[in-house]
Amino acid sequence: MTYKLKLTNFEGPLDLLLHLIKLNEVDIYDIPIATITEQYVEYLKMMEQLDLEIASEFLVMAATLVEIKSRMLLPTQPGEEEQEDDPRFELIEQILEYKKYKELADNLDHMAAVESTHFQRNFKEEEDLETGEPLIEVSLFELLQAFKRVLEYATEEPFREITLEEVSIEEKMEEIRALLKQKGNILLDEIFGGAATTKVALISTFLALLELIRLKEVVARQTKLFAEIRIFLLQKG
């Protein structure tokens, strides 16, 4: 039996594109389509290797990116008028519209969080306890990026299908819960510190973390984009 985690419970293909645009620090109006397409496909391969259930929208977007990339690589024939329409135009418009929607949704979530009493007492809302810096929620793709770095230090063992007989995701979830109940919040790397260094063990730990985030038992936050990721325990009061 395979442990499946639905990716659309977290974020969609436009979220991944926004993440890659920020990661590469490029102008949203002038997306380097070849680079973004290559990185987008790499993320899909990693999600597939992690046995995450990839929704069809991600594959449709991948096909769209490849098509745009192909159109931009087409040479202009001698005497042929230069194409007026940028093949990226519709995609850029789609990303900009989604960005507006996401920022509005994030603002509403922030307002709700301020009024909420669901945070544990030792988690000062929206601020890092040590530095006092404001905290922002971490996206799934930032977690994947951080996890990719963790895997680089794992023992060389090929990815294989994660099964419940081999690794208990539920047990890993309990381990993370216990650690957070003891400390309140921890750096992402600390979650993997106690795990065996095999890729299977690390992957099961990462899937357990994603499941806890989906269940809204924990939240991943950072002081700024691409900063260290800290995991906080959320407790309903």
UniProtKB/TrEMBL annotation:
GO terms for cellular component: cytoplasm. This is Segregation and condensation protein A. InterPro entries: ScpA, ScpA-like_C. The lineage of its organism: Bacteria, Pseudomonadati, Candidatus Hydrogenedentota, Candidatus Abyssobacteria. Gene3D superfamilies: 6.10.250.2410, Structural maintenance of chromosome 1. Chain E (1.10.10.580). Component of a cohesin-like complex composed of ScpA, ScpB and the Smc homodimer, in which ScpA and ScpB bind to the head domain of Smc. The presence of the three proteins is required for the association of the complex with DNA. GO terms for biological process: cell division; chromosome segregation; DNA replication. It comes from Candidatus Abyssobacteria bacterium SURF_17. Participates in chromosomal partition during cell division. May act via the formation of a condensin-like complex containing Smc and ScpB that pull DNA away from mid-cell into both cell halves. Keywords: Cell cycle, Cell division, Chromosome partition, Cytoplasm. Belongs to the ScpA family. It is found in: Cytoplasm.
